From TrEMBL:
It comes from Mesomycoplasma lagogenitalium. Its main location: cytoplasm. This is Methionine--tRNA ligase. The keyword Protein biosynthesis applies. It is found in: Cytoplasm. InterPro entries: aa-tRNA-synth_I_CS, Anticodon_Met, Met-tRNA_synth, Met-tRNA_synth_2, Methionyl/Leucyl_tRNA_Synth, MetRS_core, Rossmann-like_a/b/a_fold, tRNAsynth_Ia_anticodon-bd. It comes from the Bacteria.
Length: 515
């Protein structure tokens, strides 16, 4: 009997359509997409979600500025997001929109349940609000200058509000949250975030969260108290469940990918980790729902000089420009490999070009073209594995292939995507080095030995191609064609007989050098 296919549900944040997406958003979405591909390669049943967070005061204001209705405005912006993902060749399974009618139903169902349980109650909110971050802040969390309050990170001015509001009893779950953070290994990654959240939020004591607004209308109105619209973060976080039809008639996806699912991973940038590591777990807990397996928080991309990207500095890196210039796959490769998971990084186009040339053109691409060219020069048929002709260098390469596979899988399973890909490139370097040691061009009169060397190279190339396939969907097809194979199968790494009946084909250059 077949083993049940494991499930993997992976999400990006749903992005605000109040502006254009930049390279930071592409970074998050690329990470999620690469993990989705990785799990598909391991035969998981994968669901990959991205989308747009379409409510809130900021969107209402933006639409007004452009003389559009909020709905017209978000329709235009969400269509742009989809175009960007198409250009970036990122295929997702579901695009969440918080203006979708089913999503509103889910959020209202949730709200109703929490009211009934008395976890949500009505009161008066008096405090500070950041329109740009759609975030409530206490005076101690804000920066105070010249009699005014500012957001501690974006430095945007905060508004003081006093209005009727519904609240979620966060304080009730404080102890539960603290102990859960500590008990569950891998729940929050990287772990040091927990310390920061503890120091900045839990030690001061969690305040109840205001979950409705009455001062604007662009949101989901409460069914029985229509002047209140639901707070954008409660609205937005539940997209992860509304996308699976949670609490609706046909909730098969919810049962499959969440309730009875195997792995649930949210990828978020560090500035919104707090919403995902404090609010979201508490919201789920208050409904007695299962928690995600992992909340993965990554660092921020800054400009080449280490400054925060912002419109006013005119230093925002546009992903459309990069993709049109260099192609979608190299850009996604760069983002997956050159930024240490969890740390901030500067984006520098010069560095991008250097990485492209050294890793892709001179290393992996060159290995492929050299290997195929040498085979075609001396053999008309396949080059076979011959166990009893293996020498010291081959043994080392075969060991390296198996070791790299082990490390690669381990790094990927622990979300260290940059390290995993570096292993693949190192293996490619070793193989190029192996060519320099064995000097195959001097073996034209010793075809037996030449066959051993070239077969070893093919086995190495196959392993590297498997590893790289999580980011190079299209290039992998070109390589497979040259290797006369049709699919990637990680289980075949180490099956040294794979090429015994494969006649390889010459193809075009995999990566042209950038001059
Ligand atoms: N709408 C909320 C998320 C709701 S999720 C339930 C939001 N949207 S956003 O448009 O501001 O996007 C924030 C996300 O974009 C970050 O968490 C991060 O993933 C990505 N990035 C935005 N700027 C970034 C950088 N400069 N660098 C890397 N990623 C960044 O917050």
């Amino acid at each position: 009997m077949n083993k049940k296919q494991k499930t993997f549900f992976i999400t990006t944040p749903i992005y605000y359509p109040s502006g254009n997406l930049h390279i930071g958003h592409l970074y998050t979405t690329t990470l999620a997409w690469v993990f989705a591909n990785y799990k598909k390669n391991l035969n998981y049943d994968v669901k990959f979600l991205t989308g747009a967070d379409e409510h809130g005061l900021k969107i209402q204001q933006k639409a007004q500025e452009m003389n559009l209705s909020p709905q017209e405005y978000v329709d235009i912006q969400s269509a742009k997001f989809k175009e960007l993902w198409k250009l970036a060749k990122i295929n997702y399974d579901y695009f969440s929109r918080t203006t979708n009618a089913n999503h509103a139903k889910v959020v209202l169902n949730v709200f109703q349940q929490l009211l009934k349980k008395e976890i949500i109650y009505k009161g008066i909110y008096k405090g500070l609000y950041s329109v740009s971050a759609e975030e409530f802040l206490t005076p101690t969390q804000a920066k105070f200058k010249d009699g005014k309050y500012f957001h501690p990170v974006s430095e945007d001015q905060l508004i003081e509000v006093e209005e009727e509001s519904y609240f979620l009893k966060m304080s009730k779950f404080q102890d539960w949250l603290l102990s859960s953070w500590k008990e569950k290994e891998n729940w929050i990654y990287p772990q040091q975030i927990i310390k920061e959240l503890e120091n900045n939020f839990l030690e001061k004591g969690l305040e109840d969260l205001s979950v409705t607004r009455v001062s604007f209308t662009w949101g989901i109105p409460l069914a029985n108290d229509k002047k209140h619209v639901i707070y954008v973060w409660l609205d937005a976080l539940f997209n992860y469940l509304s996308a699976l039809n949670f609490s609706l008639d046909d909730d098969q996806d919810y049962l499959k990918y969440w309730k009875n699912g195997d792995e649930i991973v949210h990828i978020v940038g560090k500035e919104i980790t707090r919403f995902h590591c404090i609010y979201w777990p508490i919201m789920l807990k208050s409904l007695d729902l299962k928690q995600p397996t992992t909340i993965l928080s990554h660092g921020l991309i800054r400009d080449a000089n280490g400054r925060k990207m912002s419109k006013s500095l005119n230093n925002v890196v546009d992903p459309i420009y990069l993709i049109n210039k260099y192609g979608a796959e190299p850009v996604k490769y760069y983002l997956s490999t050159q930024i240490i998971m969890g740390q901030d990084a500067n984006f520098d186009e010069e560095h991008f070009i250097n990485v492209y040339n050294s890793n892709l053109a001179n290393n992996y691409g060159n290995l492929l073209s050299r290997t195929i060219a040498m085979i075609k020069q001396s053999f008309t048929g396949s080059v076979k594995y011959c166990e009893n002709k293996i020498e010291k260098y081959e043994k080392e390469i075969f060991n390296s292939i198996l070791q790299t596979k082990e490390i690669y899988l381990d790094e990927m399973n622990n979300f260290k995507i940059d390290k995993a890909f570096k292993e693949a490139i190192n293996l490619s370097k070793k193989l190029n080095n192996y060519i320099d040691l064995t000097l195959p061009w001097t073996l034209k009169d010793n075809l037996e030995r030449l066959e051993v060397v070239l077969n070893t190279l093919l086995n190495g190339l196959y392993a590297i191609t498997c590893f790289m396939s999580c980011v190079f969907k299209e290039k992998t097809q070109e390589v497979l064609k040259q290797l006369n194979l049709t699919t990637i199968n990680f289980d075949d790494i180490g099956n040294w007989n794979l090429f015994n009946d494969k006649i390889v084909e010459k193809g075009s250059l995999l990566f042209e050098r950038i001059k």
